[in-house]
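Weekly structure sync, notes
Attendees: PL (lead), two postdocs, one rotation student
Agenda item 3: pending single-chain targets
PL asked that the sequence for the first pending target be pasted directly into the notes so everyone works from the same version. It is reproduced below exactly as submitted, 453 residues in total.
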Amino acid sequence: MVGGTAGAQVSVLLAAPLLTRLYTPEDFGALAVYAGILSLFSVIASLKYELAIPLPEDESNVVAITLLSLMLVVAITALSAGLIFFWGESLTALLQVSALSSYLWLLPVGIFFSGCYQVFSYWAIRLQEFPLLAQTNIKQQLSTIAVQLFCYKFGGVGLLFGQAFGQGVGVFTLARKIFLRNSWRKPPINKIKYVAWRYRNFPLFSTGGGLLNTAGMHVPPLLFAAMFGASSAGLYALANRVISIPMAVIGQAVGQVFLSNAAIDHREGRLSKLVLAAHKALTKIILPPVIFLILFGPLSFAMVFGEEWRLSGEVASWLALWMLVSFSTSPLSSVFAVIERQDLGLFMQAVLFVVRVLGILPGFYCQDFMVGVMTFSIFSIFGYLAYQYVAFLSLGLNLKDLLKGYRFAIPLVIFSLLVKISLGEYLSIYYVFPFGILAVIFYYRVMNGLNDD
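Predicted structure, written out during the meeting:
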C-alpha cells in the first residue's frame, strides 16, 4: 500500500518543478480554492455512511450501506450544483479568485466522482484490496498531472481541468471489482432503511467531524486568499502540497490498513496496543523530513520550483512543525468511529477546527501573511496534541503514553529551530546535504534498534 501510494506521490513531486514554471502562484491559488470547496462538499457526499462499510459481518448489510451512500452522493451533487448556480460568482468574488467563476461547473462533476470513489475505496479496505487501491491512486495522480501539463496553454484553468479529471479515474476500476461479487446479484433494497438507522451515528456525528477535519485542512487557503490574495493562497498551497506527500504516502496508507484491522482488534481488546505502535512508528518516520524542511525549506524550494517560490519554502518550514503531530494523528482519526464514540470525535474535530482558524487571525490583525502562517502552525500543534490526548484517554491510555512517542522528536526539533534562527543565512544545502543523508541513515538504524518499552 505504501509502495503504490509512494509511486503516485513521487510522480506529483517530479511534476511539481514543471508545473511551478508553467503556472503562477495566482493559478495555484485558484486551484487551492477550487480544491478546498470540492473537499468540503466531497467529505459530506455520503454523510459518512461509507465509514460503516468495513464494520458489518453480513455482506448484505454492506451492500445496503453502499446503495444508501451512492444515493446520498447523487443528492449532495445536485445540491452543490444548485448552490453554485445561484451563489457561485459571489463566492469567487469574496475569495478574490474571480477567474474561477467561469469554471465552477467542474465542482459538481468532481464531487460526484470523489464521493463515489470514497464509497468504493472503503469496500476495497473491507476486502483488504490494498494493491488495487494503490493502483487507482497512481492512475489518479498520473492522469491529473498529464492533463495539467498538456493544458498549460489555457492558463490556470489547466490545473482545474486536471484536478477534476483525476477525481474520476479509478472509480470504474473499483466499482467493477465490487459489483461483480455475488452479494450484488440481488441487492437488499429492503435493508436500506435498517442500515440507515443502525449506523445513524455516522451521519449524526462523523459527518460533522469529517467536515470540520476537512475544513481545518482546506479553509486556511480560502482564508489566506480572502485576506491576502490568490498569490498568498498559492504559496501556501504549494508548501502544503509538499508537506502532505509523506502524509499521503505513509500516513494515509497506515490509516487505511489500521482501519481494516481496528474493528477486530477492538473486539479482542488489542486496539490500544495497535494505536501506541502506530503513533510511535509514525513519529519516528516523519522526524527527518520535518528537520530538513525547518533548516532548508526556503533554499530547497527556490532550487526545485524556482526563485519566485522561495517564500513558499519559508511557509513549508513553519508548516513542518505541525506536520510532526498531524502525521502521527492519521490512524487516530478512525478510533472514535471504531469504538462508536462519534460524538466525542465530533467535539474534538470542532475544537481542532476552531483552534486552527484562530491561529490565522493574528496574521490578519497584523496584515502580515507570514505572521498568519507562523501562528497557524503553532496553534495547530496544540490542537492536534489535544485531539491525540482525548483519543488516548478513550482507549484507557494516559498523557505519559502520548508524550513517550515524542521524547526523541521534541529536543531535535527545538535544536533545529535554534540552528535556523541563529545560522539561517549561513546554512547551505550543498554542504550539509551529504552529512544529512548519513545522519538520516544513522537515525533510522538507531530508532529501529531502540526498545521503546
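Discussion points:
- The longest helix spans residues 230-267.
- Residues 249-448 form one domain.
Action: rotation student to compare against the earlier draft before next sync.
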